[in-house]
Amino acid sequence: MNDTTALEAAAFRRLLQHLNQDRADVQNIDLMILAGFCRNCLADWYREAADEAGVPMDKAQAREAIYGMPFEDWKRLHQRDATPEQLAAFAQAQAAHPKA
């Protein structure tokens, strides 16, 4: 592993710590509204990278790698139902930034 890869890996680990320990209160929908990605997106990108590297990984395994626990446990511990305001803001954000 070169220096750049080691730094990127360390920064990624810190991002996961921040999202899952320091700011577990921040809901995925809020991340999607503000940043256009969430923990589930990170899990999808992680699984895609695994696939590109020839490492077999399913969606549940990728989510567990990102969340640090099975996704169902995370949802039970941290996820709240989206409010009507969050759903409206999400729809507005999606309309303003459609996927290419």
TrEMBL record:
<protein>
    <submittedName>
        <fullName>Deoxycytidine triphosphate deaminase</fullName>
    </submittedName>
</protein>
<dbReference type="InterPro" id="IPR036810">
    <property type="entry name" value="SMc04008-like_sf"/>
</dbReference>
<dbReference type="InterPro" id="IPR023163">
    <property type="entry name" value="SMc04008-like_domain"/>
</dbReference>
<feature type="domain" description="SMc04008-like">
    <location>
        <begin position="26"/>
        <end position="91"/>
    </location>
</feature>
<dbReference type="Pfam" id="PF06844">
    <property type="entry name" value="DUF1244"/>
</dbReference>
